Amino acid sequence: MFPSQVLSIKTTGLPFIIILSALMAVTSLSTDIYLPAMPVMAKDLQGNAELTVTGFLIGFCIAQLIWGPLSDHFGRRMPLFVGMVLFVIGSVGCALSSDIVQIVFWRVFQALGACTGPMLARAMIRDLYSRTRAAHMLSTLMMVMAIAPIAGPLLGGQMITVTSWHSIFWLLGIIGTLMLISVFWLPETLPEEKRVQASLYGALCNYYQLLTNAKFMCFTLCLTFYYVAAYAFITGSPFVYITYFGVDPQHYGWLFAFNIVGVMALSIVNRRLVHRYPLEALLKFAIFVAALAAVVLAAATGLGFGGISLIVGAVFIFFCMNGIISATSTVCALDAAPNIAGSASALIGALQYGSGIISSLLLALFSDGTPWTMGWIMATFTVASAVMALTMQATKAGSEQSTIKN
């Protein structure tokens, strides 16, 4: 068992926000920090270093589906503790790897633990707060965690100039150890009387309940489709910026960071908006702005006008909306399944991060040597996300009419 709750921090204090933000940032940091070192890793390990990203995402998606029901049954702290231990072990394994097979294996192992951070941070917020307050808190967490994808590539790029890529994974091991220690100060947000008492098999059956929950799936698919588009940019942008437009690799990180600054800015704004407007209305507005930006991007890349400036501008607007879309869609989805928030958060995370696999496959299959492939993938799935937002509204209206008739 864990130490006495006397050591726990207050759930309304800055330390609580910082720890949850750091837990949510573990995933981004685990991938983004070593991106500048991938060419060197591929040479040293004599293999395709991109497999380390694929392996991490696969492990991340699958493991969440196990940890979710476990957290509903045993509480949030125990899975977080075990997860951080696995993350540290996986990081050390990556640092000691000498070939591509070894490091891909340890990246999968690392993901088994890393996934507990963002998944259970979301669940803990839902345990503690009502939907509006939860959206406010998630916007705050996203604002803080956005530092990771900005600092990660910049830090990794500097480290690789003075030391080997192994040191990056040693650093991740140290960060994981600090996160492990911080878990002891987190309160248990799911009291025993609210935990799922069914067997693990019964808890896993909750996924069927979630998949057949129309309201939950509308919000979840809205977020998933948006992230397919987002990962299309994350995966395709190195080719578009560096290879196609000839941007210096040292400046690529700044172009990427430019988008994250937009996410942080909208997250700050969203903290106020959630108290003034319905979450569904905010989500609908944000996703339609993102869809418009993605369609403009697809048209520009397809017709070959606007150049890199238009692409950078359209992508910036697209990513800015993430500050609203992620917070509102997550809270609304969790609100549709409050009694199994752990499983719900796990399924949201599995689909959200698994969307990156879809993006990478589509880019590999349909790449034509121009930015057009990235453009049409982003537009297609952002429009699909907007369609889900319309479906969500229709479902809500239908349920209201049914209630009035009854």
UniProtKB/TrEMBL annotation:
It is found in: Cell inner membrane; Cell membrane. It comes from the Bacteria. Keywords: Cell inner membrane, Cell membrane, Membrane, Transmembrane, Transmembrane helix, Transport. InterPro entries: Efflux_drug-R_Bcr/CmlA (IPR004812), MFS (IPR011701), MFS_dom (IPR020846), MFS_trans_sf (IPR036259). Residues 1-397 form the Major facilitator superfamily (MFS) profile domain. CDD domains: MFS_MdfA_MDR_like (cd17320). Pfam families: MFS_1. It is a multi-pass membrane protein. The chain crosses the membrane at residues 12-31, 51-68, 80-98, 104-125, 137-156, 168-186, 216-245, 251-269, 281-305, 311-334, 346-366, 372-392. Signal peptide: none annotated. The keyword Nucleotidyltransferase does not apply. The keyword tRNA-binding does not apply. Belongs to the major facilitator superfamily. Bcr/CmlA family. This is Bcr/CflA family efflux transporter. The lineage of its organism: Bacteria, Pseudomonadati, Pseudomonadota, Gammaproteobacteria, Enterobacterales.
